[in-house]
Automatic annotation (TrEMBL):
Annotated CDD domains: ABC_NikE_OppD_transporters
Protein name, as recorded: Methionine ABC transporter ATP-binding protein
Gene Ontology terms describing biological process: peptide transport
Membrane topology: Peripheral membrane protein
GO MF term list: ATP binding; ATP hydrolysis activity
Length: 334
C-alpha cells in the first residue's frame, strides 16, 4: 500500500497513553504508555490477547471510554498534530463526529433496532450535511450499493434484524464511512462472522480504505486476518506495545518472544497434523503487573534481568521496535 511520505503531520499519533480503571480489586492499569501512529492510506493492525488493552486504547482515542471507572492518566492523542485530550470541547466534538469513526464487532448492538437502516444512514447526512430527507435517502441507497448490499433500493426500509450478520457488518461499515472520515478504527470487525464472510467483509473494508485514502486501525486477536491487509503491526501485551514492525518483517522474523508465540500458534495448512503451539500461562492481573518484563512469567527465554528490569522499546531496525532485553537473540533464532 502507498504511504503518503509528503504528509506534513501524522494523521493520528498516540503518545505514551495511560488509562486506569478503578475497581473493587484495586487500580487496573489497562493502558501503560501506548505509542502508535497511522498515516492517511495506511493500515495499522493492533494485535494481542484478550485483555491486553486494545479496545480501551481505541476508546480513549475516540472519546468513548467508560469513565468512570476508566480514567486517562497521561499521554497525548494527536490528530493532525493537535491533542484531542486538551483541545476545546467544540473542536474535539467536530473532529470525533465527522473525521473519525469506529466499526464494532457487534453490529446488532451498535445499530438502532427500531429504525430502518436506510433511515439511520440518511440521518447522518441530515444531521451533518444538512441534506433534505429526499437527498439523504438517495445517498443511503448509494452507500448500501457501495458496500454491496444486494437490492439496496428494496432493502433500504428494512430493520437491522432483517439482515444477515455479514450484511449488518457491511451496513455498519457504510455508517462509519458515510461522512468520509480521515480515520477509522475497526475493533474486531469480523470476529462474529463465519470465515468466508469474514474474508469478504475484510476485503471490502480494505478496498474502501484505499479508495478513500483513510487511516485504518484494525484491532484483532487474529494474526491470520491482518497479513493481507495491514501495512504495519503493533503487538500489545498487558497494556503496552511490545513490538511494532512492518507486517511482512514481523511475520518473517519476530523480535519479541510474545510475538513469536502468537505466530507459532496460528494453524498452518502446510503443517497439518502438527501439534499447535500455545503460549503457556495467562496474561497478568492488571492490578498487579509483575516487575521487570510483564511477559517474564510466561516467557521461554526469560533470564534474571527480565524479572527486575522493565525493557523499554528498543529500536531494532527502521520502523521496528521490540520491548525485549533479548530482541537480538529472538530475531536470530528465526
Ligand atoms: N469498563 C471497565 N471496567 C473495569 N475494567 C475495565 C473496563 N474495560 C476494560 N477494563 C480493563 O481493561 C483491560 C483491557 O481491556 P480491553 O477491552 O482493552 O481488552 P482487549 O485487548 O480489547 O481484549 P479483547 O480481545 O477481549 O477485546 C481489561 O482486562 C480490564 O481489566
Ligand atoms: S525481556 Fe525477557 S521475559 Fe521479556 S520477552 Fe524478553 S526475554 Fe522474555
Ligand atoms: Mg477488545
Amino acid at each position: 500500500m502507498e504511504h503518503q511520505r509528503d504528509q506534513p503531520v501524522t494523521l493520528l499519533d498516540v503518545r505514551d497513553l495511560q488509562v486506569e480503571f478503578h475497581t473493587r480489586d484495586g487500580v487496573a492499569k489497562a493502558v501503560n504508555g501506548v505509542n502508535y501512529s497511522v498515516d492517511p492510506g495506511e493500515t495499522l493492525a493492533v494485535l494481542g490477547e484478550s485483555g491486553s488493552g486494545k479496545s480501551v486504547t481505541a476508546q480513549a482515542v475516540m472519546g468513548i471510554l467508560d469513565s468512570p471507572p476508566g480514567r486517562i492518566t497521561g499521554g497525548q492523542v494527536l490528530f493532525r498534530g493537535e491533542d484531542l485530550l486538551t483541545m476545546g470541547a467544540e473542536t474535539r466534538r467536530r473532529i470525533r463526529g465527522a473525521k473519525m469513526s469506529m466499526i464494532f464487532q457487534d453490529a446488532l448492538s451498535a445499530l438502532n433496532p427500531v429504525m430502518s437502516v436506510g433511515a439511520q444512514l440518511a440521518e447522518m447526512y441530515e444531521v451533518h450535511d444538512g441534506m433534505t430527507r429526499k437527498d439523504s435517502r438517495a445517498k443511503a441507497v448509494q452507500l448500501m450499493d457501495r458496500v454491496r448490499i444486494p437490492a439496496a433500493k428494496d432493502r433500504v426500509g428494512d430493520y437491522p434484524h432483517q439482515f444477515s450478520g455479514g450484511m449488518r457488518q457491511r451496513i455498519m461499515i457504510a455508517m462509519a464511512l458515510a461522512l468520509e472520515p480521515d480515520l477509522v478504527i475497526a475493533d474486531e470487525p469480523t470476529t462474529a462472522l463465519d470465515v468466508t464472510v469474514q474474508a469478504q467483509v475484510m476485503d471490502l473494508l480494505a478496498e474502501l480504505q484505499r479508495e478513500y485514502n483513510m487511516g485504518l486501525i484494525l484491532i484483532t486477536h487474529d494474526l491470520g486476518v491482518v497479513a493481507d491487509v495491514a501495512d504495519k503491526i503493533a503487538v500489545m501485551y498487558a497494556g503496552r506495545i511490545v513490538e511494532t514492525a512492518p507486517v511482512h518483517e514481523l511475520y518473517a522474523a519476530p523480535a519479541h518472544p510474545y510475538t513469536r508465540g502468537l505466530l507459532d500458534s496460528i494453524p498452518r495448512l502446510d503443517q497439518k497434523g502438527r501439534q499447535l503451539y500455545a503460549i503457556k500461562g495467562l496474561p497478568p492481573n492488571l492490578t498487579a503487573i509483575p516487575p521487570g518484563c510483564p511477559f517474564n512469567p510466561r516467557c521461554p527465554m526469560a533470564q534474571d534481568i527480565c524479572r527486575t528490569d522493565r525493557p523499554p522499546l528498543f529500536a531494532v531496525a527502521h520502523g521496528r521496535a521490540s520491548a525485549c532485553h533479548f530482541w537480538k537473540e529472538t530475531l536470530d533464532e528465526r
